[in-house]
Design a protein that fits this description.
The complex is a heterodimer. Chain A contains 13 helices and four strands. Chain A is an alpha/beta fold. By secondary structure, chain B is α/β, with parallel strands linked by helices. The chains are: A alpha/beta, B alpha/beta.
Chain lengths: 286, 287
Amino acid sequence: MIKHLIAGVKHALKLHYPGRALIILPDDIFLVSFPKSGNTWTRFLLANLRFPDQPATWANIDLLVPDPRSTAKRDLDRMPRPRLIKSHECFDPRYPRVIYIVRDPRDVVVSQYHYHRKLMRIVDDSPIESFVNRFLAGETCPHGSWGQNVVSWLATSERDPHFLLLRYEDMVADTAKELSKIVEFLDLSAAPEQIATAVERSSAASMRKMEEAQTNQLTKGSRKDISFIRSAASGGWRSELPPAMAAKIEGAWGPLMRRLGYELTSPSLPPEQDCQYLGILSSPRQ
Amino acid sequence: MRRLKVGVKHLFGWHFPGHNLRVFPDDVFLVSYPKSGNTWTRFLVANLAYPEKSPDFSNINNLIPDPEGMSKRNLERSSRPRILKSHHCFDPRFQKVIYVVRDPRDVVVSEYHYDIKRRALAEDYPLPQFVSRFVRGELNHPYGTWGENAASWFYTRRGDPRFLLVKYEALEAQPTVEMGRVADFLGIPGDRERLAFAIEQSSARRMRELEKKQAHLWSSTRETRKDKPFVRAAKSGGWKADLCEASIAEIESAWGGIMRDLSYELVGLGLVVDGGTSNSAGQKSLL
């Protein structure tokens, strides 16, 4: 009863987190990815680009590029338009404009494994093998499996002019170039210096330094000896993931991974086998 | 004042949870794009699962509720396992899913007539124009286009033992076979008599009779035109007579790939159907 009373009062005062019941506005821009795919980094990049007078920090990022699952409705209603909103959801036809970041699932699983240690959801010596199995089954987060999340977006939106697909790996390789794609996609104007500033302010070094100095919503209550900003690199799975586990991931999503340009280590997959998800819809949403 | 009402509604769980539905691990979802046989399947499944409740338009919303139209409180009090209705695109929280898919060329004709019935469309609105809006997803509902809805489920869940794909056309052509699959999936004994009973109780003829008596009792027909029936042709392939060539071409060029993957035969009409399936060469590069 008390719980219900609190929920009722929160709704009356718009202090609740709307989550999936978020009221979407026609000019909203969603920054979507499967968890641990560079979403927070891109949030910082976008926030630093859009609000140069207010450098993004761990303390203000939830107001600059909020997550409807952890930001009050009141704050979401008060944001300057167009709103930039963070999301890990699978395909949602209501999202008007989407920047989707994809990352090699072999790196994603390693990143998520360490993140879950940090959150104390798993113990330190928990075998990565069992984590990979849960990861493949989509049991490590409430946003579907990596494959489902990616396919749900690609199969529906790949050809939509309001959908921009970026790879984490390309962002690491040339951040300014990928950020320029976002600028163009959003019809923003930004001088190269502005882009460079945003990149600099959102660098792994800068974000690490801030993480040490600031308390924040994202990592509150988690282990301090494991940092949120970890390697911030791609390809780490080659040394961290047992080959059999990499092969297992490739067995589940090989064709999709290959389609996204992720080189496979297991030669056994027939070429282009069963990769039907892509290029099946051609109608642009208006 | 409005806010107070919202607060009180949440306090007592009287609000419709919709997207924020609390999903239980044993929930079964009956999902389809609108106008794809969802109501028919709801009747079929209700008659199969709850024959003792005599499903009709007065109680179908309670037997197989829609989280967009039932209060949180009642949803959470429904007996388990719940069978829920949904039109949503892929949702990873929905574990056990029956997805009913129908030829989009028939879906658009059905939606057109339904929109006239519910006065969302003028009676003389040109069908080809409506088809264009349908293809572009301008229908004022949050369920995406037909292609988005079907693709979001099909490509994420096919092959999964907890996902059952049922084609409207197959359900019409061989209801006993298809309902046998549904019964298996639900773990309900699928003996011939029980299936035949469910199919008979949900026949177009019987549903038309029920609609005549009960249209005022059901949310989807209550305030709609009485001169147009909700249960219309209940047949597949009507599009061949109703759609012009340009409309057919428009639908097939938008969704040719997924239609083929679902084994819907394309007319083709000599147009290049963009969006090939698996192995077609020359696909637009992704990156």
